[in-house]
Every structure is written in C-alpha cells, then in structure tokens.
Design goal:
Layout lengths: L15 H20 L2 H17 L11 H36 L11 H9 L2 H12 L4 H8 L3 H21 L1
C-alpha cells in the first residue's frame, strides 16, 4: 500500500475513504457558512480533503475526532482563501482602474467581436484561467502553480469559465 494511504499510526483510526464519506457534507456546510460562497466552499473543501489525504498518516484519533481534524484543516484553507481573495480583489481593482485609463482595450487582434464581448462577461479570475489554459496552452498543473491554487480548483475554475463563456456566446 502506498505510504500516503496507510492507516494512521495510532490504533483505531478508520480508513480515509470512510472518513471522507462520513464528513464531506459537514465540512462543506461549514465552509459555506464560513465563506458565504458555495463555489468557494467547493474549492476549499476539495483543497481540504487533498491536504487531509496527504497528511492522513499523521492523524492521531486520540488527539481529536476526524471531523474536528478536518474542520481545522478546512479553517486554515479558508483563511488562506480569504487572504488570496483580498489580494485578488486588490489586483482586479488596480487592473480595472488602469484599464479605464487606457480606454477600451481589446483582448487581441483579429478576435471576433462576439468572443470579445463574451470574454468581458467573465470575471477577471475566469479570464485569467482561460488565458493560461487556452491561449497560453499551459497544462493543468502549470496553470494551477501560476494561479497559486490547487489543480482541482484550477480545473473547476476553468470548467465554470468555459460554461459562462458558452452561455455568453449563446446569447449572441
């Protein structure tokens, strides 16, 4: 069995898959209340369980219950998310201010006007992931590293961005 999925050293800990099945909904609900954003809660929950999986061998059931341990990881991940969101908002505000000063800048030469209008519908974070994955053709892990998020969060963000882009193009 790979080292990352071994049972915790302390006796009596349930298998990780059982812990996930039992506590995923509770951790997600906790994150929804904490963030007030279902989409962010999904991303943070994915990050939480990824981190928990990586450190499962160190979990000690004598120190806390799996739910408490997972909520601690989720809280730390949420705090990181809040900090990252604050930095992102500041970047977007600066970018929007700079963009307003340079008038109506185009996304690129030769782009169809319908696509350009649809891209304007996307949030800056969604445009960024589309640019990295589609325009620059970065693979998922590389784009996630650039964005400073997990691969799962990057994939989810790209999926949502493409859905929004498709909806915006459909409206044209």
């Amino acid at each position: 069995m790979p080292a990352s999925v071994e049972q915790p050293r302390a006796f009596g800990a349930p298998p990780f898959a059982e812990v996930v099945a039992e506590h995923l909904d509770a951790v997600y609900r906790y994150l929804v209340y904490l963030t007030g954003d279902r989409s962010a809660a999904e991303d943070i929950a994915a990050d939480t369980f990824e981190k928990a999986f990586r450190s499962w061998r160190r979990f000690d059931p004598r120190r806390s219950s799996p739910r408490t341990w997972l909520c601690g990881i989720a809280r730390t991940a949420a705090i990181d998310w809040f900090r990252a969101e604050s930095r992102r908002r500041k970047r977007e505000e600066t970018y929007a201010r700079d963009l307003a000063e340079t008038e109506d800048a185009a996304f690129g030469e030769g782009m169809a006007p319908e696509l350009e209008r649809a891209l304007r519908v996307l949030s800056p974070a969604e445009r960024e992931v589309v640019a990295l994955r589609v325009l620059l053709e970065l693979d998922g892990p590389a784009a996630a590293r650039v964005l400073g998020i997990s691969q799962t969060a990057c994939s989810t963000r790209l999926s949502r961005a493409l859905k929004h882009l498709e909806e915006a193009m459909g409206d044209e």
